[in-house]
Amino acid sequence: MILFGALINGVAVVLGGSIGLLLNKGLSKRISEAIMNGLALCVLYIGFSGAMAGENIIITIGSMVIGVIIGEGLDLDKKVNQLGLLMETKFRPKEDTVSISKGFITASLLVCVGAMSIVGALQSGLTGNHETLLAKSLIDAIAALVLASSLGVGVLLAGGLVLIYEGTIALLASMLAPLLTDTVINEMTCVGSLLIIGLALNMLKITDLKIMNYAPAAFIPIIFGLFY
């Protein structure tokens, strides 16, 4: 049952997003924007809270720099956009004016990048304790509901990605156990939470960061852990 928590999280995103689609016609643009801005502030709070877990600023800076170099080199943001556009081409109704790509990317970043995804998946893989991912599932269901009401069906596709993402971490956790000290997990949490802050700023339309190109940074503390 290592994948139980990840599976529930994926299902929660799909269910929450489905309810959001039903509310799509019932929410005015003004209300939708207000809800999205409120959600962005909550995401900003989550990001700042998690960023405080960091213990070594050098590791944080080093992880961010190395991670960005890797992400920009691979141009992960472009690849994820291409995936979203592929889904959009195949499944978007002609009369639909909402971008599936935007919904998929925004929801994927929100539910995949961050402290609870990493720590929760590690707990599932190492101890079989799914409490963190179950709590995250409730949060993600509400977030998916709000996002889908304004960004459309692309949000539901993030349910599959979060299952793959958290499931992979959980399955690999036992092999990586010797490297995943409390310090490493704290640094991964810190860097991942900084990405969440970046996402919140994008949601508030303050910045236009290619957050997917920063995503590898969340895993670089594992390398530093070999020497720390």
Report on the structure:
- With 228 residues, the chain is mostly helical.
- It has one domain.
- The chain has 10 helices and no strands.
- It has helices at 4-22, 29-51, 57-74, 76-91, 100-112, 115-127, 131-151, 154-176, 182-203, 221-225.
- The two termini are 33 Å apart.
- The model has no long low-confidence stretch (mean pLDDT 83).
Mean pLDDT over all positions: 83
Order of helices and strands: HHHHHHHHHH
The rough form would be described as globular
The radius of gyration over CA amounts to 17 Å
Number of structurally distinct domains: 1
Count of beta strands: 0
Q: Helical amount among residues, as a percent range?
A: over 70%
Key words describing this protein structure:
228 residues; mainly alpha
Topology overview:
Layout: H1 4-22, H2 29-51, H3 57-74, H4 76-91, H5 100-112, H6 115-127, H7 131-151, H8 154-176, H9 182-203, H10 221-225
Helix pairs in contact: 1-7, 1-8, 2-7, 2-9, 3-9, 4-5, 5-7, 5-8, 6-7, 6-8, 6-9
Quick rundown:
With 228 residues, the chain is an all-alpha fold. Helix content is 76%, strand content 0%.
